[in-house]
Amino acid sequence: MSSVAVRGSRGRQTAAAWILTLPFVLLFLAFTAGPVLGSLGMSFTDLKQRDLRTPFAVNGVGFDNYVKALSDETFRKAALNTAYFVLVGVPLTLGLALAAALLLDRGVKRFQSLFKVGYYLPVITSIVAIAVIWRFVLSPDAGLLNTVLSWVGIDGPNWLASKTWAMPSLIMMAVWRNFGSAMIIFLAGLQGIPATVEEAGQLDGAGSWQRFRYLILPLLRPTVLFTSVTTGIGYLQFFEEPFVMTQGGPLNSTVSVSMYTYQQFGFGNYGVATAMSYLLFVVIAVVTFIQFRLLREK
Known about the structure:
Elements: H1 3-42, H2 64-71, H3 73-107, H4 112-124, H5 127-137, H6 144-151, H7 166-191, H8 195-203, H9 208-219, H10 221-236, H11 240-245, H12 257-266, H13 270-295
Helix pairs in contact: 2-13, 3-7, 3-10, 3-12, 4-7, 7-10, 8-9, 10-13, 12-13
């Protein structure tokens, strides 16, 4: 076949490929790339709710919206709340998920599928249903948790109305709700490790902890990376828990960056709200990069 014919055939194949991908490209540009670029431009303007009729008549303000966001006391409080939620919630979630996965993989052989479904069920359950359950559990008067504490002589606090205990309560609920997803992934990772690895460790005289620390955990590094990244991104964007359970209270002790950004959109401060969104995006990107650097395979 001549080179001209080959080039013609490749050209037709390329044209056919572009025709087939054109619907996706158009949808991506219209509903993803376009809005993202538009919101980025919006963060450098003074766009407010009153300007929606004339969106191109707004003024550029440079980085003023980012400066306003960073100098906003409530936004800084929300950032600290979010950091607290992530730094405590992610290790607890992953630790509990890994422990449950080890128990299912090593100890529980019968009814394993039943346990997996039970642990994973909160992940797919509506946050509204979960909120109803946890409001009952954390109720100060007749709640399940305070009732159990009263049996041992402890007077439990008003969990969701306390500045001290509101955030730990939300973390506890988030860990309970989300650890099942990471557990399923950890269990898949454990079941992908050959049994000969542990057998070799036993022959060398390694104990259970030594085998886990020096054999199993290094082989789980890709799984740990994936679960830590996905869990960390989700927790950095946490919104539903305070929105449904505490509305950000008491005294903004549970307001998150996502929730405060949502409130700013509701107030019509679109420029400042989009700037807050991109600040959160930058933090997510930096945290994800750090996780990849620390947990990547060596």
